[in-house]
Amino acid sequence: MKKEATRTVRIFALSSFLNDMGSDMISPIWPLFVTIALKANIAMLGFLDGIGEAIVSVSQAGGGWLSDKLKKRKLFIWFGYLFPFLSRIGYALAKTWQHLFPFRIIDRAGKIRDPPRDAIIADVTKHKERGRAFGFLEAMDSLGAVFGILICIALLAFGISYRNLLVLAALPSLVSVILIFIFIKEKKPKKISYSFKLKNLDRNFKFFLLLSSFFTIASFSYSFLLLAAKEFGLALLTLPILYLIFTAISSLFSVPFGRLSDKIGRKKVMLIAYILWAYVCISFIFWHNSAAIIIAIFVYGLHLGALKPVQKTFIAELSPRKYRASGIGIFRFVTGLCALPASAIAGLLWAKFGTTAPFYFSLLLTAFSTFLLLFLREKL
């Protein structure tokens, strides 16, 4: 990569690392803070999180569209890191659970940064290096999550209060804000009219969106993997360790899979990602001993390491350059909406037919998504 492109990718990767570190410093204590410290019931916790996920989908679509329309990227990325900083301070100051709602909305609205950021990375990199760039971004993102969880555990062991932990978790995002403000330079945009319509996205983009939507419904939340592991006999205390395992594996293998997609193509690495997820499903259906579950969790980390960077690369390349952020935003919006019923379906199947039922359902949809993938045309 050129020097400017390398610096841009590294600044984005470092910012992502820091922001996710702060985010995952909160994740382990968030349910406890809401339900114990602020005395909300489980329904309200679910409502808060549900609103958050809905805001993520809307903000990514809106952020991509506005970024293209206004011909500005940096502004949305900068606010995208500022919002989590402000929201975590707000969480710490909240006196009742009702006070959390505006800050939860601000927090999740920070995802407006993703489509403009991914569009810049796609713009400054060449085809043969783009997979590696997105792989590095994902690796740093996952690594930030690992560090965040470890820091949270360490600080809780030293007796830090939830509110003080929330304030500390805001600081990494503040550093991200400063990094973006100082080091990301945006070229003056060309004066080109913007009139985005869905017809600006070709059939190949829409086909990829369709098959990705099916796979998103198939790939329910990791929470079900951890709950199934508990059902099959693993101790409750091992579940955070399993979470760390797949997050760390995802971080370690994101760059290698990104590089591989530069060499053999995005489509083949997507196929590998789907096959790895199919193995996870098969493992949880048929093999319930501790060793098999740990191997499945390891493979799940490989799946994430393959899927996330190549999916980002693929959609950035399938989106027209003029409407790149809009295309990425639409993809995130649609797949985000599909993620909402995915875990709900898995939960209903689990409750009605047993622990392995969601995995059978997922395996069926994964097979269908894989079949559709064979007909996708890759831009070279």
Which band does the percent of strand residues land in?
A: under 5%
What does the main sheet amount to?
Answer: none
The total count of strands amounts to 0
What gap, in angstroms, lies between the N and C termini? 18 Å
Number of helices: 15
> Considering DSSP H and I runs of 4 or more, what fraction of the residues is helical?
over 70%
Report the radius of gyration as a whole number of Å: 20 Å
CATH homologous superfamily title of the largest domain:
MFS general substrate transporter like domains
- How many domain regions? 2
Q: What kind of assembly state do the chains in view correspond to?
A: single chain
Per the principal axes of the C-alpha atoms, what is the gross shape? globular
Q: Which CATH C-level class of the largest domain is it?
A: Mainly Alpha
Low-pLDDT ranges: none
- Derived from helix and strand composition plus strand pairing, the structural class reads mainly alpha
Mean pLDDT across every amino acid position: 90
Order of helices and strands: HHHHHHHHHHHHHHH
CATH architecture of the largest domain: Up-down Bundle
CATH topology of the largest domain: Growth Hormone, Chain: A
Describe the structure.
With 380 residues, this protein is mainly alpha-helical. It folds into two domains: 3-183, MFS general substrate transporter like domains (Growth Hormone, Chain: A, Up-down Bundle); 200-373, Growth Hormone, Chain: A, CATH 1.20.1250. The chain is 80% helix and 0% strand. Helix 1 packs parallel to helix 7, helix 9 packs antiparallel against helix 15 (357-373) and helix 14 (324-353) packs antiparallel against helix 15. The longest helix is centred in the middle third of the chain and has 31 residues, at 127-157. The mean pLDDT is 90.
